[in-house]
Amino acid sequence: MAATLCSRILLTKPGCLPLAQSVRHGSKAVTRHRKPMHILKQKLLAVTEYIPPKPSAAPGAYPSQTKRMEQESGLVRFLKKKVETTFEECKMLVVVQNNATNAEDMLLLRHRLHKHDIAIKFFPNQVMRSYLPSSQYRNMLPLFIGQTVMFVSKEPKVKEMLRVLRSSPQMILLGGCIENTLLSREGILNYSRLPSITTVQGELVGGLTLMTSQTVSMLQRHPAHLSALLQQYIKQNQPGGTPESTAPETTPKTEGAAV
Amino acid sequence: MESWCGVTLLLQQHLKILSAGLKTYELPQDYSGVVIPEKPKLKFLNKVPNFKKAKKEMKRLRDIQGPAKGATSFTYGQYAIVAMGGGYLEWGHLEMMRLTINRQLDPSTTFATWRVSAPYKPITRKGLGQRMGGGKGAIDFYVTPVKCGRLIVEVGGRIELGEVEGVLNQVARKLPFPAKVMSKESLAAMHQEQAEKEANNQNPWTFQRIARSNMLGLRRVISPFDLHNHGRFTGKFFNPSRV
C-alpha cells in the first residue's frame, strides 16, 4: 500500500483546513510535546515578532518635562509648620553636624545648653529642603546635608554655646543665621569675639569725646605748658610772623590771671 | 524642683532623636468590602461524579486548546492561581491543592474558593499488555479540562499578597500546566500590557495581517485555529511574547 505523504483535500469553503495535510500518520493538533513546525510557519513567526518602540533619547538623558508634585504627608506638613515657628521666634539658629553622639553625651549637651536657654532641635532634611526654598533662608540649604542638628535660642548667646561645644568634639559647627545674617563657621567665631554692646557703646562715646577730654586735661595742667604748646603751634603754622607771636603772649597771661 | 522638672523634660525630649531622612509609610489596605464566607476553606471535590450510568466520551482535545472562555476574571477573591497553558486536572491535583491551601488558611481572616469544577470528563484506559482493537477501554478516572487563562483557585480576605504568595506558588508549581499567582491588579496589568504591545508594535508585519490576507499562500501551513488566535497558541501551549 503506497501511502501518500500529502493529499489534496478540496473543500467548497476555502480556508477551512490547510490545503496540505499530512494524512499518513501524524500527531493530533493538541500534543503533550511541542509539535515540530513547518519551516514556513517558523519563518512567519520569526518575521512577525514584536518590535518595541525605540525611545529617541536614553531614559535618563533628559529630565522629565512635567515635574510630578508629590503630595506631602501630614507629618511633613506638621513639621514644616513647626520649622516655620522656630525660624520666626529664634534670633540665633546654628546648624551643627553630629557624628555618632552617645545618648548620654547628647543628654549632657542638652542639659548644658538648657542652662543658657539654647534648645536643640531635630528636623528631617526632607522637611527642611521643602521649606527653605520658599522662605527667605534659601541660602541655608547647603548646610542641611547629612546628620544635622539645629541649636536655636531667642537670644544670641554664641560664646556660651561655643564653650559648651568645645566639650563635645564630635559636634562640628557648620554655620547658621544669627539675627538675620547668614554666617559661616569663621563668621560665628568672629561674632563670638565681638565685644558686648555696653563696651562698644563706651568705646564709641570715648571716641567722640576724645578731643574735648584732651583739651580739658590740657587746660587743667600748668598754664605755662599750654602757652608753650600754643607758641609751638603758631610757629609751625606761620613761620616768621612777629606781630602774631606778641599778641597771643598777652592773652594767655590774662587767661592765666583769670584762672 | 525646677531643675528636676527641667531634667525630666530633657529626658522626655531626648528620647526622640531623628536621623537625616524621614520615612513615609504606605497606607494599609482598605478591607471594608471584604466579606469572609461561612465556610472559608476549599470544599472537598468528588473523584467521580454522581452518575447512575457512566458514559464513555471521546477524547475531544479541543477542550485544552486555545484561550479560556469562562472563569477568566476574579469574583470575590483578591489573589488567584491562573493557568498559563492547557491541561487536565486530576483528582490527585485537586486534593493536593485543597490540603495545602486549607492547611495554611487562617479561617478568621482568609477564604478560598474553587474556580474549576470537580472532575467530570471520563478518561478511558485499556488494560496493560492489551493489543489494539476490541473496543474502547474502560473508564479509568475523571479529569477537569483547563484552558489557558482560566482561574483555578481564588483566595481573598484581610490579607496581602506576600502572605499567600508562598503557598500558591508552591501549589502552582505542582500543576500539570504552567501556572502563575496573580492578583486582580496584576491580571489587569497583564491584559493592559498586551493591548499596549499590540498598539505600539513597530513591526509592520503582524501574524494576523499576513494570515488573514493569505500572503505567500501561508494559509497552507497555518491552521484556522492559529489564524483565530493570532499565532499565540499552539496546541495546549501558550506563548506570551507573541503579539
Automatic annotation (TrEMBL), chain B:
First-listed, main subcellular location of the protein, grouped into a coarse class: mitochondrion
Record's keyword terms, sorted: Mitochondrion, Ribonucleoprotein, Ribosomal protein, Transit peptide
Family annotation (InterPro entries): Ribosomal_uL16, Ribosomal_uL16_bact-type, Ribosomal_uL16_dom, Ribosomal_uL16_sf
One annotated Gene Ontology cellular component of this protein: mitochondrial large ribosomal subunit
Subcellular location: Mitochondrion
GO molecular function terms listed in the Swiss-Prot or TrEMBL record: rRNA binding; structural constituent of ribosome
UniProt entry tagged with the keyword Cytoplasm: no
Biological processes, Gene Ontology terms: mitochondrial translation
Stored Pfam families: Ribosomal_L16
UniProt cross-references to PANTHER family, sorted A to Z: 50S/60S RIBOSOMAL PROTEIN L16, LARGE RIBOSOMAL SUBUNIT PROTEIN UL16M
Family: Belongs to the universal ribosomal protein uL16 family.
Listed name of the protein: Large ribosomal subunit protein uL16m
